[in-house]
Amino acid sequence: MIRKLLVGFVLVLVICLAAYLRFHHSKRALDVAYVGNHQVILWTTSAQIREPLGTVNYGDRVDVLGRFQEQVQVHTADGRTGWITQGDLLSADLWQKAQDLESKVTRLPVEAHGHTRVLSNLHVEPGRDTPRIRQVNKMTPVDLFQRQPMDVPAAPPAAGDKEAAAAPADAKKEDWWLVRAHMPDQTTVSGWVLGRFIDLDVPAPLPDYASSAGVHIATWFELNRVTDASGNAKPQYLLLGTRGSEGQPCDFTLIRVYTWGKQGARYETAFVDSELCGKLPVKITQAPLPVSDVTFAFEDWSKGTSEQRIYRMHQTVVRRVRQTGLGLGKKHGAHK
């Protein structure tokens, strides 16, 4: 009797162990991924008839248990198992690149502020064919850091058009910007976005002045402030821009300084320079009070090599300074 009980007990243990190992094997993670969109629904099954289990948020780590077509079975950190679409996940490698990009922008000066004009994708690198980090809604505030011109992917020739296929493609270029997007949940996400998807938050009346001069605004900076006839502080601006189409090799090809005229009670163009090929960032230094002089400088590539251009504004007079050793200070944007 005791022997039969022992045999039965061992048999039960073997069955339980086999069931555990089978269950454990079926739940073993195939990979690790991260949620790539805000509040993604976790579903009970990959079938069309299904129920929501809840939501997972951007950046949540999940274990990948299986895949079926475009659906992925995942296990969350809080113990839920469900299905989400492949497009809502970032691989561990892509997530790490996104975090590296986030760390990079914390060390860069902000060159402009703006907002997305349409639903926009943030990419890990500039270019339409690069992996997407996250999609952001229209009117999302963004900080701009770096610009990069990229080739526009050529459209494939029509079927049977051998002449078009053999002809060299015109290399059109477009602007891409490295940005930091401010999300509604108070978090930030950084990535590269197509420049034409961004509207700059340029203060009035600079857009009207630039439009009348045929200038496309690249960025702008507040140099200092003066007092108007009513005692109110009026900012004075440095505007950087280009003419022509996007995708130019220079970040900007002209600069304009707008100062406040007390007698006319309006902004006036105090300085213009257009013989340059400027590169961001711009370094701005304000002299200690009571002196209100401002110095700004940037790299100029108009001669094919890097040359530092330096300008100094005294009151409403701006002149180019052709000497070094002025102690320009750290790189920074005036938008911070």
Describe this structure in words.
The chain is of the alpha+beta class and about 325 residues long. It has 3 domains: about 30-90, SH3 type barrels (Roll), CATH 2.30.30; about 110-150 and about 175-195, SH3 type barrels; about 200-320, no CATH class. It contains 4 helices and 22 strands. Strands 6-5-4-1-7 form a 5-stranded antiparallel sheet. Strands 13-12-11-8-14 form a 5-stranded antiparallel sheet, with helices on one face. It starts with a helix and ends in a 15-residue tail after the last strand. The relative contact order is 0.09.
- Give the helix tally: 4
The secondary-structure element order is: HEEEEEEEHEEEEHEEEHEEEEEEEE
Distance between the termini: 84 Å
Beta strand count: 22
Structural class: alpha+beta
Q: Outline the low-pLDDT stretches.
A: 16-26, 161-169, 325-336
Radius of gyration equals 29 Å
Helix content: 10-25%
Shape: elongated
User: How many separate structural domains?
Assistant: 3
Largest sheet properties: 5 strands, antiparallel
The largest sheet has its strands arranged as 6-5-4-1-7
Strand content: 35-45%
Average pLDDT number:
86
